[in-house]
Amino acid sequence: MQIYWTKIKQIIEETPEVKTFLLDCPVDYTWKEGSHLHLALKGFNTGEKPNRSLVRHMSISTLPNEEAVGITTRIKEQSSEFKTILKNMGIGEEVALFKTHTHVPLKREDKTIYLLSAGVGLATFRTLVLEYFERTDGVQNIHSLNIDSSGDYLFTDIFTSTAEKNFTAQFVNNRPAYYEQVKDLATDKNGLYYVVGSDEFLIQTITVLREQNIQPEQIMLDKHAHQLLDFLPIAEK
């Protein structure tokens, strides 16, 4: 396993609770849209065993052409040890990156793509939307639906509806409105439904999709293959 040590080059306050950390791109480090990584803080590998409290699985919210590895995360006032340390880090401090992979690349199958997310789960979809804007072939259109009870919606410079590029961005701030919209979107029985959020959010969203006869192969999750069976059959149990 290769570990890339790199430095924080910029910190962006997206909302009062959400920050994006832009990291220098390590030499020979590559990724594609929909990727995630393991982000580790100094000291995570100094003992006999890795200190897992200093490591987090994170989505990458930028594309390589932005010349930075972006990590967007919510940091509340009362946070974990990892988030507390990260919150107090500054430009020039080092972090480690490893185990970069993607389970949710942009599929170009001439279908409509629905991006269903909660809160900062939108960070995963930012890269898919940017990739789509760069090249729209093979995708009929994209509809993004994000729920964020804080009301501080993310990336509104990108997630803005544009008829020219067949892109719709929709935000709601409560669960009932979200699930009603999912039901409406699921009238498209040929679409591809990408879902990103907490495990509870995945289960509830998948349940709604399956009740609308959306098939498991139409549902894309940011999960390893061995984890998928924990989620996709949920409505059939």
From TrEMBL:
InterPro entries linked: FNR_nucleotide-bd, Riboflavin_synthase-like_b-brl
Give the SUPFAM superfamilies listed for this entry: Ferredoxin reductase-like, C-terminal NADP-linked domain (SSF52343), Riboflavin synthase domain-like (SSF63380)
Please report the name of this protein according to its UniProt entry. Answer: FAD-binding FR-type domain-containing protein
- Organism classification: Bacteria, Bacillati, Bacillota, Bacilli, Lactobacillales
